[in-house]
Amino acid sequence: MKIHIGTLIAAMLVAVTGVQVQAATRPHSNTLRVETPANSPVLAEQNAQAMYLHKTADGSALLYIEEQGGRGLSVLDVTDPAHVKRVAHTSFPNGSAFDFVRNVNDNVALIRYEDGSGVALLNFKNARRPVLETAPAFAEVGYTERIGQTGTSSTRVVDPKTYNVLDIANASAPGLLATIPAVTQLVENGDTGTLFLLNNDGVTMVRRLRVEAQHQVELTQEGGNN
Fold first, then answer.
1. In a domain, 25, yes or no
2. What is the rounded radius of gyration, in angstroms, for the C-alpha atoms of the chain?
3. I need a surface site. Which of 5, 147, 162, 180 has the fewest CB within 10 A?
4. What total of structural domains would you count in the chain?
């Protein structure tokens, strides 16, 4: 799922392109929290290469992380950003490194192999045990760019960027919460406002605490109305 950075997100997540952000470093924030592979081992993925966020029918949010040159796929349950859990790992013995291109439907994502050998489908019908399938229809049309809705598509950034996470509660003196280097992909969970940034160390998670709290209120209200 490709992120579309809105005004608020752009203000707190700054890409550093040779210009350093001038900000006082503060270790804490009332509205933002940064979870890194260093302080949250469940997010650690050495040489992680791509990721994809999938929403299941029961409302769960699962983050799939490609690893081992396409031979493995870790599955994290990120439904509750405060309690991320590793729930499964799938191996593809003959796998090859790939990029997520876009979702095909609610349970299928299109992937493209980096070696130019073609495309395939990743089926999430069993969300914790996704299955690779051939995609002859896509191969025949020479799939070279995304078609249709792109709001949930995902491709990796060609040139990695360094990002600074800022607390802008005090706009005149923004607080620098974290610096994440060599980011290759960003994904957002719109329900909880969580941002996931991928680099070689794994996934850094930027949590928006007020959005999380509001989401919990909405879930409670929905449960009471059922």
1. yes
2. 18
3. 147
4. 1
1 located within any domain = no
Conformational region of residue 118, where left means phi above 0, alpha means psi within -120 to 50, and beta covers everything else: left
- What the block records as the tokens of 164 is 């600074």
Q: State the residue for tokens 């579309």.
A: 4
**Burial degree of 165 (CB within 10 A; 0-12, 13-18, 19+):** buried
Residue-wise pLDDT for 3-41, tens only, equals 333 334 444 676 655 445 555 555 567 888 999 999 999
Q: Give me the residue label for tokens 């929290």.
A: 33
Range of the domain at 88: 7-225
Q: Is there a domain that residue 192 lies in?
A: yes
- DSSP structural state of residue 58: T
Q: Whole-angstrom Cα distance, residue 203 to residue 115?
A: 24
Region 45-74 average pLDDT: 90
* Cβ(88)–Cβ(36) below 8 Å: no
In a domain, 166, yes or no: yes
Closest alpha carbon to 123 in 173, 171, 166, 64: 64
pLDDT digits (tens, 9 = 90+) for 117-143: 888 899 999 998 999 888 776 654 443
End-to-end CA distance of the chain: 30
Q: Is the pTM of this model over 0.90?
A: no
Coil, helix or strand for 166? strand
Bridge partners (DSSP) listed for residue 197: 186, 204
Distance CA 22, CA 25 (A): 9
Q: Which residue bears the tokens 């051939």?
A: 134
